Amino acid sequence: MSPLTPEQLGQAREGDAATQRLLIRDAIAGDSRAMRALVELLSPVIQTEVSFAIRRRAIPARRDGRQDIADFVQEVFLELLANEGRTLLSWDAARGRSLPSFVRLVARRRVARIFRGHRGNPWNDDPTENAEFDRIGPANTNQERRLESRQELATLLEMLRSRLSDRGLVLFELLYVEQRAVKEVCEVMNMSRAAVDTWNSRLRKLVRSLTP
Amino acid sequence: MNSENDMHDEHDAETSALLDQLGALAREQLSTREPEWEEFARGELAEHELRAASDDDDDDFERSLELFRPLDDDARERMTAALLSATGGASQAPAPVIALPSRPRPRWRRVAATVLPLAAAAALVIWVGQRPPETGSRVAGLGLPSYQIEVRGGVQRERGPRPAPGVDGHRYTPSSEFEVVLRPATDARGPVRARVFAFPEALSGAPQETGSKGQVIPVTMQASESGSLRMAGPTRELLPLAPGRWRLVFAIGREDRLPTDPERVRSLAAHEEHDGLWIEEYRVELTGD
């Protein structure tokens, strides 16, 4: 492994996809300088997702979330780098997302999962959390009525994000958030129509399983 | 059977409607994020700029401020070490500080009308000065933060090995754009200035034996409120020096501490503090047109 030069590190920071991939590989291989540069490059992206998520909980509850920010950012990083960086290395600029955009998406899912974890997470005691979710809403009404509360819908969205795989989340974002045409999604993801349909079917099944 | 199909269709339609609702909510959540908080978290907006841009100045604002405040150098350094340890790379040498995109973007980067157009053919390179790991934040007793240097512009070498960091520097023609940014690790808390010196060197990088008198470069670096310093423009204007290799030394400090004698800074080690001055350096090779 030949360490990246300072010039390459600079290019990675400027958004050059090829050098960013080299940076990821070097960081995963244990190059401390590359890891530091990766932290510099991506921690603001991850922190933004973490901060917005914590603020949604902290401000109404009058909680102090400052101490948790760095821990959560690091936890997201660890998940991104797990299994020899499989998630980070699955990023492909040819699919139309910059590295920060890709990491933002993945971080959103990781953050949702962290907040719905069961490891003594103090942010996981929202009364609308998953265990309570089934009891929301009256019985014998259709899904839309059961989810007429925005809070419930927001909870479902977070649950969905926490349960989706990386690829599933990207497809959800492309199909339902960005509202791209299936044909375009096939091109962006380099997937066949049948494969996208299969993923979409899984997504629908998951949504149904998460609603009472 | 028809009844079962109808129920299935109805259920499917409900799922579609629900997914659409979820997508709409996700879009709404993103659209209602205040962009200034994102910029602050990314380090592109300084705290005072955020305060000026925000209508709120209450307790919630202060709480948000703490949540979105970019992680400082120490936190990033600890995170780097933890990640290296977790990925099996902890045996590596301590990480020098590299580019810090989280630094508040100085006002001149937000409003400056004199953005430097870089020729498409010219390479855009950044050189980031290395800094001892223990100097990540404020220099004890100085009231000055530590600094790092970023250099952009220059002409990419067409062949041959890449220059060693901080030894060969980069090559500039008189018409090359040259930009140097000196970034503080933390807010400088008060006016900071820099004086630039140039010392000729042999092509090997060694100081020249004869005629190697240093000189002050007559340039004023722009200063932001947070303490960032910047010089940018055509090389011929910023570095009115003879073709050859030069070591540029940047002495950073409060105005009354800045030296005027090049000999005072010639032998000061870079990336360190010396009696109220923070020293950075960068080597350039100047060519004719």
Could you characterize what this model shows?
The complex is a heterodimer of chains A (212) and B (289). Chain A contains eleven helices and no strands. By secondary structure, chain A is an all-alpha fold. In chain A, helix 1 (6-13) crosses helix 2 (17-28). Chain A is flat and about 50 Å long. By secondary structure, chain B is of the alpha+beta class. Chain B folds into two domains: 2-68; 107-286, no CATH class. Helices cover 28% and strands 23% of the residues of chain B. Chain B starts with a helix and ends with a strand. In chain B, 37% of the residues are buried. Residues 90-137 and 157-168 of chain B have low confidence and may be disordered. Chains A and B meet through helix 1, helix 3, helix 4, helix 8 and helix 9 of A and helix 1, helix 2, helix 4, helix 5 and strand 1 of B.
